[in-house]
Design brief:
Elements lengths: L6 H17 L3 E5 L5 H7 L8 E6 L3 H8 L3 H7 L4 H13 L5 E7 L14 E8 L7 E6 L5 H15 L3
Length: 165
């Protein structure tokens, strides 16, 4: 049991590590609003080194551009909290890793920063696989968190779910 993270996150991370290890699949992450929580959850699990290749915490737009090659035009057009941005982040993660699958997360954790179109609690996710047709897999979720920590907790759980085979 972990004292660092909630049991539900650690339990789900354990499933992600065990199930991906069984099929020999490596994962990588690009995290913005979760700030590395998904990677932290995975590394709580013994044996995670067999599964987790790397994680990028690209909190700023500059980091998304420099580390993951997300274009400034894409961010200016759609915003950092958009399916287009997280899809580009996931693609950049695959390009700069040895992973078979990448998950990217960006969102508005609050308490500030929300807009009428993207209120606090808006989080976008994308999953990209090295093998396959390359079709974008992404979704936008609206979490109703009482505070920043709750939104980040829910986003971490949702991202871990995307890493299950």
């Amino acid at each position: 049991m972990s004292d660092l993270l909630p049991a539900e996150i650690v339990d789900l991370a354990r499933r992600v590590v065990e199930e991906n290890a069984k099929i020999g699949r490596k994962v990588a992450l690009a995290e913005s609003c979760t700030g590395g929580l998904v990677a932290a959850a995975l590394t709580e699990i013994p044996g995670s080194s067999a599964v987790l290749d790397r994680g990028f915490v690209t909190y700023s737009n500059d980091a998304k551009q420099q580390e993951l090659e997300v274009s400034s035009e894409l961010i200016e057009t759609f915003g950092a909290v958009s399916i287009a941005c997280v899809w580009a982040m996931a693609q950049g993660t695959l390009k700069h890793s040895s992973a078979d699958i990448a998950v990217a997360i960006s969102g508005v954790a609050g308490p500030d920063g929300g807009t009428p179109l993207k209120p606090v609690g808006t989080v976008v996710f994308a999953r990209a696989c090295r093998e396959g047709d390359g079709e974008p897999e992404g979704e936008m979720k609206q979490f109703d968190g009482k505070d920043r920590s709750e939104i980040r907790r829910q986003a971490t759980l949702a991202a871990l779910e995307l890493l299950l085979p």
